[in-house]
Write a structure and sequence with these properties.
Layout lengths: L2 E8 L8 E6 L2 E5 L4 E9 L5 E9 L4 E4 L2 E4 L4 E8 L6 E11 L2 E13 L16 E4 L3 E2 L4 E8 L6 E9 L2 E10 L3 E7 L7 E10 L3 E9 L5 E10 L2 E10 L5 E10 L6 E4 L3 E5 L2 E10 L4 E10 L1 H19 L4 E9 L7 E10 L5 E11 L2 E7 L4 E5 L2 E11 L4 E10 L13 E5 L1
Parallel strand pairs: 12-18
Antiparallel strand pairs: 1-3, 1-10, 2-4, 4-8, 5-7, 5-9, 5-18, 6-8, 9-10, 11-13, 13-16, 14-15, 14-17, 17-18, 19-20, 20-25, 21-24, 22-25, 23-24, 26-27, 27-32, 28-31, 28-33, 29-32, 30-31
Length: 435
């Protein structure tokens, strides 16, 4: 008959810790094929709460531990259960059990499981050729960060190729394979961005050696969204796009906020339609969004096109030009010529007054200045009133009213005090009226 003998050897290593542990039972003998379980009772004798990681080194084929992490308040005790398979082949199985308090060794022991049968008789203590694989990892990590995995192995396992696996409920998330060429070495495992929160398993396996170890690690909940804007210049305006990327591991709700001036508000086109509030001469736009972990997409956009303003500006400019170029409704024009004579001292002046408007104008008065170097000789058609002043003689014609399209012509002669050689300039006449 095959027989299973289980011996728990606790190594008193003298760790300065407030953690104590007891295996129950410490020794057990059962019939082959029945399997067995062990209870590891862990007590926090300190005065602060802590998280204890249960680390098991050895062949993981025949044994599993649950839970692998214990959160202990001061003075409390919790249990981890070790399940040994009923299908283990006859052999000696040696497991190194470590309790880690925030990464620091708090307790250590050896669990030796001897399966007897088919001519195999196991010893009750481990041989000198014990193969040890210790692993230390942080208690928790954020998504997107790097896990530092510290391995420590016995000399008889060097060199080896190690495979480190991050698992979630037995599903492989990340695998790192590297050579192990010294008894202590650190490895890095990159946690994917947006990996969901929860308890994960880190497993280290020495390929071809039959030696593995695993422990638990928690990926914490992280709520983080990055927002960036992209601006595209237009001929007369701009388009702005806001892109959100959820680099956390939880569904995230938030807002994109942007201020624009009152000048831009009439030209605004936005998608989706934002909430808009006015504050003085500025407007504030708010877009709400919901984005899943790992998602990256456009959550808001708006554009401003200044073409309507440019069209209005061109039309206003044209209107101003037309106004400036438009002749007065009532105009007065003056021309003159030299009369016959060797010295060109006699000048005949013609004045034309015209009403180009569609209405009758009244109280039309024309004034014209004769410079002090000349004097009035004779007036034709309409006789003006003459009044001497410091710079010459002011002539005034009171024409009364002018009908639409009516034109008046009158003239006068003046004599210069001396002859003129070259070009002669005379003052321009002026006109007033009532519409």
């Amino acid at each position: 008959m095959k027989k299973l003998t289980v011996i728990m050897l606790v190594m008193a290593l003298g760790f300065a810790s407030d953690i104590s542990a007891v295996f129950t039972p410490s020794t057990s003998t059962i019939q082959y094929g029945e399997g067995t379980t062990f209870t590891l009772s862990v007590t926090n004798n300190g005065d602060i709460a802590t998280t204890i990681q249960v680390s098991l080194t050895g062949d993981p084929t025949w044994i599993r531990v649950t839970p692998g992490s214990l959160y202990l308040y001061p003075g409390t005790t919790k249990n981890s259960i070790f399940y040994f398979s009923n299908t283990a082949t006859p052999n000696s199985y040696i497991y190194r059990v470590e309790l880690l308090d925030n990464g620091t060794m708090a307790w250590e022991g050896l669990l030796v499981v001897n399966v007897e049968g088919d001519g195999y008789t196991a010893t009750e203590t481990p041989s000198d050729d014990v193969k040890i694989l210790n692993m230390h990892v942080p208690n928790e990590v954020n998504p997107g960060e790097t896990i530092i995995v510290n391995l420590e192995v016995s000399e008889n396992l060097i060199p080896s190729d190690v495979e480190i696996i991050l698992l979630k409920e037995g599903n492989e998330i990340v695998t790192v394979s590297e050579p192990l060429d010294r008894i202590q070495k650190s490895f890095t495992v990159q946690v994917p961005e947006s990996e969901e929160a929860g308890n994960y398993t880190i497993r280290a396996h020495l390929l071809g050696k039959g030696i593995s170890n695993e422990t638990s690690i928690e990926i914490v909940e992280l709520s983080k969204v990055e927002i960036r804007s992209e601006i595209t210049k237009k001929l007369l305006g701009r388009e702005v796009v806001f892109i959100a990327k959820n680099i956390g591991n939880t569904l995230k709700e938030g807002y994109v906020t942007k201020q624009i001036s009152f000048w831009d508000r009439p030209l605004l086109e936005a998608s989706p339609n934002p909430e808009i509030t006015k504050d003085g001469f500025t407007y504030t736009m708010n877009w709400g969004y919901t984005i899943a972990p790992g998602d990256e997409r456009i959550v808001a956009s708006y554009s401003v096109d200044y073409i309507p303003y440019s069209i209005i500006g061109v039309l206003l400019l044209i209107a101003v030009i037309l106004i400036l170029q438009k002749p007065e409704a009532v105009e007065v024009k003056k021309s003159f010529e030299h009369l016959a004579g060797a010295d060109h001292s006699k000048i005949k002046v013609k004045i034309v007054v015209s009403n180009s408007s569609d209405e009758v104008v009244e109280n039309v008065v024309v004034t014209d200045l004769i410079p002090g170097i000349a004097h009035l000789k004779k007036a034709y058609v309409v006789k003006p009133k003459a009044k001497k002043q410091k710079d010459g003689t002011m002539l005034t014609w009171d024409l009364g009213k002018l009908t639409s399209g009516e034109e008046r012509l009158f003239s006068y002669e003046l004599v210069l005090s001396f002859g003129i050689i070259g070009k002669l300039d005379l003052p321009k006449p002026s006109i007033t009226w009532n519409q």
